[in-house]
Amino acid sequence: MRFFELNGSGGSNLRFSGECIASVEALNHDDTVRCSMHLYREENAKANAYICHRIDRPNTIDVRYRVERCADVLTVYQFFGTEPLANYLYGITKLEVPGLRQIQI
Question: Where on the phi/psi map is residue 86: left (φ > 0), alpha (ψ -120 to 50), or beta?
């Protein structure tokens, strides 16, 4: 477990101990990062406590940060939504979210 300090909107910060369980990025046509999403599991928190972090337009003057502590998988889903990058994150972490189903082959 590591200590993290994540930037949020309006200059806010969220500090916690935990582990990053997934990081994904969407790229522009020139291979610059358009959006990155990170999902953390918080240490010493109630069961399945997550930290969601989204960075839009990193490395630009228009960078935007969002960070939120989520109590369960449904609030993670409400934070990241249903865009393709979020669905990719759910698949990597095997989170059971509405509208997606994992099948056994």
Answer: alpha
Burial class (CB in 10 A: 0-12, 13-18, 19+), 34: middle
Predicted confidence (pLDDT) at residue 11 exceeds the cutoff of 90: no
Q: Are strands 13-27 and 2-7 parallel, antiparallel or unpaired?
A: antiparallel
Q: Cα(24)–Cα(87) distance, rounded to whole angstroms?
A: 10
Burial class (CB in 10 A: 0-12, 13-18, 19+), 46: exposed
Gap between the Cα atoms of 73 and 37, Å rounded = 15
Cβ-contact 79, 37 below 8 angstroms: no
Closest CA to 51 of 27, 80, 24: 80
Q: Distance between CA 84 and CA 42 in Å, rounded?
A: 25
> 72: which DSSP letter?
S
Is residue 99 a contact partner of residue 81, using CB atoms and an 8 Å limit? no
pTM for this structure? 0.89
